[in-house]
Amino acid sequence: MVKAIVIRKTGGPEVMEYVDVEVGDPGPGEVRIRHAACGLNFIDIYFRIGLYPQPLPGGLGQEASGVIEAIGPGVVGFKAGDRVAYAGRPNGAYSEARVMPAAILVKLPDAISFDTAAAAMLQGLTVEYLFGRTIPLKGGETILFHAAAGGVGLIAAQWARALGVTMIGTVSSDEKGALALAAGCTHVINSKTENIVERVKEITHGKGVPAVFDSIGKDTFIDSLDCLSPLGTMVSFGSASGPVPPFSLNELVSRGSLYITRPSLPNYVSTRADLDAASANLFEMIASKKVNIEINQRYALKDVAQAHADLEARKTTGSTILIP
Fold this sequence. Notes:
Keywords: NADP, Oxidoreductase. The protein contains 10 helices and 16 strands.
C-alpha cells in the first residue's frame, strides 16, 4: 500500500483525500514508478472542480519524477532503476508510487534533479511548444504573455530572453513584476493598477503585438484581442479565471483579421519522437543555464489542499512541487 490523493466528487480543495491505495504490478506497456517529487499545475484544479471531467473516484496530478521499480511486458527503452519523469495523462501523479504507461516517460539526464524535473516537465514543455511550434519565434518579436510570474511565465520570460524576444508580461503585484523582470521580461504590466491595452499600445508605439499568450481565460480574453496588431495571433492555452465565453468571429475580423488557437500539450508530444525531441530541447535549456526552474513552494503531499488553495488565490510564484 502507498499513500495517494483520491477525489470521489468534484469541488474545493477539501474533496482531496490522502488515503492508502494498492499499487499492483505493471501490465503490458506499463511501468511502476516510485515518485521522488510531484508537480502542481493549474490543470489539476480544472480536474478537481470538474471543468475537465474524469471518471470518479480518481486521482489527480499529471507530472512527477522518480525511479522505475518494475517494467511490464513489451516495454522497451526503459529498465528498473532508470531515473525518469513525465507530464501527461492519465491523472494520478499525486501519489508515492503508481503504475502508468511507459509511453509518456522520458529518461532524466544526470544534470537534471528530481525536483527540477517535477517542476519543469509540464510547464517547460508547454513553453517549448508555444515558442517553438505554436508560434515559432525567431528573435526580434515583441509578445504579450499573461501571468508572467507564474511557473510557465517565469520559464517563458527566460526562454524569450534566450531567443532575443521582447516579452511584455502581465502580473498582479509589483512584487511579482520584479520577479518577471529578473527572469527576462523586458516590460511588465501590473494588471491591478494599469490598463493592459493602453500600456501595450504605449510600449509598441500604437502597433500592438503579433502574438499574445493567454492562460488566464475569461478575464483577459478581450484585452488580449485588443492588444494584437492586425493579422496577429491569440494563443489561449489556459483558463485560470474561467473558460472563455462564446464569442462572434466578427470579434476577430473587426480587429484586423486576427487568428486564434487553443493548443494543448498532449497534441504536441503524441509520438515518441516528438516527446523525446521536446524533452531534449527543454533539458538542454536547463542544463545550459538559459532557463532556471524557480521552485518557490514545496508542500508535503498530505498538505495538497493548502497547495491548491494557495495556487487558486495566486499566492504562489514560479513552480510548486509536492513531496511524497
